[in-house]
Amino acid sequence: ELYTKIKKQTCPSCKAKTKRVHSYRKQLIQGPNLSNTSVKIALRKRRYLCTHCHHTFYEHLQMVDRYQRCTNSLQMSARTYSAIGSFTDAARLSGMTTNRLIRLVDRHPLQTKKVLPRAIAIDEFKGDAGGERFQTIVADVENKEIIDILPDRKVDIIKEYLQSRDTCKVQIVVMDLSKSFKQAVQKALGNPFIIADRFH
Ligand SMILES: [Zn+2]
After folding, report:
1. Which of 64-102 are b and which e, b meaning 16 or more Cβ less than 10 Å from the residue's Cβ?
2. Which residues line ion ligand 1, judged by CB < 5 Å?
3. Which candidate, 187, 178, 190, places its Cα nearest to that of 122?
4. How far is the CA of 47 from the centre of ligand 1 (A)?
5. CA dihedral defined by 79, 81, 86, 87, rounded to 10 degrees?
6. How far apart are CA 115 and CA 148, in angstroms?
7. What does the pLDDT profile of the chain (200 residues) look like in tens digits?
């Protein structure tokens, strides 16, 4: 069973200080796994009352976020496990259901580098979006899929984009032979096989 000491709070509504307890609510939270047994924490959440504006609010807890039913540290280890193994294994290791883990990962996607395919095509098109006349499209040539749309056609934007991706698989780049594209591609990818798009 877990609860905190009563501490002076700042009312989120009017910013006045208060220590007046309004009520308690018991909530079952899943804690870390200890010796392969999941630990349940009975959290005694305290609600404070602002004596100035009569607003009531829950205390802020570091170990568990609002609306969550497991501790932040458990979420963190579950996400780490899922980065190296299957969701099923990661869920078992962290003592939660696979569905719950998938929902968790959907909410906090891992920042992994997107891997670009073997053959990509880069082209500009007149999209008139976000105050720029031209945008850049990056496509997967062999699977005929759009990979990304970049906000403009500037060398730096294209270069930064390519550098932010995992390009170790890229061997072929299809593009027009405008200086800016070629420059960006060579700066970011070294010397891939460049195919000039025949429409240019
Ligand atoms: Zn208040």
Report:
1. beeebebbeebbebbbebbeeeebeebbbbbbbeeebbe
2. 11, 13-14, 16, 50, 52-53, 55
3. 178
4. 13
5. -40
6. 12
7. 888 999 999 999 999 999 999 999 998 988 887 887 888 899 999 999 999 999 999 998 888 887 778 888 888 888 888 878 888 998 888 888 899 888 888 876 655 668 899 999 999 889 888 888 999 999 999 988 888 889 988 888 898 899 888 888 999 999 987 777 888 888 888 888 988 876 65
Ligand 1 geometric centre to CA of 10 (Å): 8
Kindly give the distance from the C-alpha atom of residue 20 to the centroid of ligand 1, in angstroms, as a whole number.
Answer: 11
CA 24 – ligand 1 centroid, Å: 19
Provide the residue ranges of all domains of the chain, joining segments of one domain with +.
9-107, 119-196
